[in-house]
Automatic annotation (TrEMBL):
It comes from the Eukaryota. SUPFAM superfamilies: alpha/beta-Hydrolases. Residues 90-315 form the Alpha/beta hydrolase fold-3 domain. InterPro entries: AB_hydrolase_3, AB_hydrolase_fold, Carboxylest/Gibb_receptor. This is Alpha/beta hydrolase fold-3 domain-containing protein. GO terms for molecular function: hydrolase activity.
Length: 341
């Protein structure tokens, strides 16, 4: 009997490590993540996970699939039913500052099922590796791995368990997209694909409140007051970047700031048309406006939409009284962009 209390004590310590075992917290975003000095990471259950079988949109079927050969890389498929023609494919990356979030979070499951239904497209929602355990460029590498997998699927012949999905996909009309950190992933994957020659199938990139940064503060970063319901403050933004970027680098790293001197010149990038969706009350508003203006000056095709009276991630967090109306506007813009590209 003497060994049993020791075993129970060890089990409890594994579930709830003591501070003296793992050291003090060195990075924290309240309610989302704690990083301890010894490298232990604790992610808090801020959003409930839901299975792919849960159907918020009755006309959309969903399934989880392993993607490629990378350990742990998977995605959630959303396929609108009762469509006679093949549909464009949107490869989507969720937000969360590169450090939190999941393709199985309820807020993303609801939003992407709605997007698939209203925009009439197939959605592949990617569950990529997270920082700080996997700092950048891990998420960007996962994005490229997913695009290689999509290309393999396009060339696949013969029946298998994914045949039902491929039968609905128009692989000649592929889009990259994401929100917040996921938008940064979509952008960087598009840039890397462009360096190899933009695939003819890549018709456009959809960036929803893209999460970029820089050492110099913009006006909206300095002056936009955030409520307690806000998904992103300047403090949390800085914390995410400290956890996501390689140690010893700052926010003018090319993986963070596409307008930094060390970043590739926009004129040299080969990119398909872009749709950038911003929020009036988002601290990132001015930074993304600067990017859109610089892209346009560099001769890139950029469509820019700003949604009034809402802040960062309103479309998934519903943290403003006009969130649903603004989300409907955004989905209308996304549908038009996809149909016209």
């Amino acid at each position: 009997m003497g060994a049993l209390p020791q075993l129970i004590g060890d089990w409890r310590r594994n579930l709830h490590p003591r501070e003296e075992d793992i050291g003090p917290v060195i990075e924290e975003i309240e309610g989302l993540i704690k990083v301890y000095r010894d490298g232990h990471v604790e992610r808090l259950p801020a959003v409930v996970d839901v299975p792919c079988t849960w159907a918020p949109e009755p006309d959309v079927a969903s399934k989880d699939v392993a993607v490629g050969h990378s350990a742990g890389l998977w995605a959630r498929l959303y396929v609108p039913e009762l469509r006679k023609q093949k549909l464009p494919l949107l490869v989507y990356f969720h937000g969360g500052g590169f450090c939190v979030g999941s393709a199985s979070w309820r807020c993303y499951h609801e939003f992407l099922a709605r997007l698939a239904s209203q925009a009439s497209c197939v959605v592949l929602s990617v569950n990529y590796r997270l920082a700080p355990e996997h700092r950048l460029p891990a998420a960007y590498e996962d994005g490229l791995a997913v695009m290689r997998w999509v290309r393999q699927q396009a060339g696949h012949r013969g029946p298998d368990e994914l045949g039902w999905w491929r039968a609905h996909c128009d692989f000649a009309r592929v889009f990259l997209g994401g929100d917040s950190a996921g938008a940064a992933i979509a952008y960087n994957v598009a840039v890397q694909l462009g360096s190899l020659g933009v695939p003819a199938c890549l018709r456009g990139v959809i960036l929803i409140q893209p999460f970029f940064g820089g050492v110099a503060r913009t006006s909206s970063e300095k002056n936009t007051t955030q409520s307690s319901r806000s998904a992103l403050s300047l403090t949390t933004s800085d914390c995410y970047w400290r956890m996501a970027l390689p140690p010893g680098t700052d926010r003018d790293h090319p993986w963070c700031n596409p307008l930094a001197k060390s970043s590739p010149k926009l004129e040299d990038l080969r990119l398909p048309p872009l749709l950038v969706c911003d929020s009036e009350l988002d601290i990132l508003r001015d930074r993304n406006l600067e990017l859109c203006e610089a892209m346009s000056s560099a001769g890139k095709s950029v469509e820019h939409a700003i949604y009034a009276g809402v802040g960062h991630a309103f479309q998934v967090l519903h943290n403003h009284h006009t969130s649903d109306a603004r989300t409907s506007e955004m989905l209308t813009h996304i549908r038009a962009f996809i149909n016209n590209s």
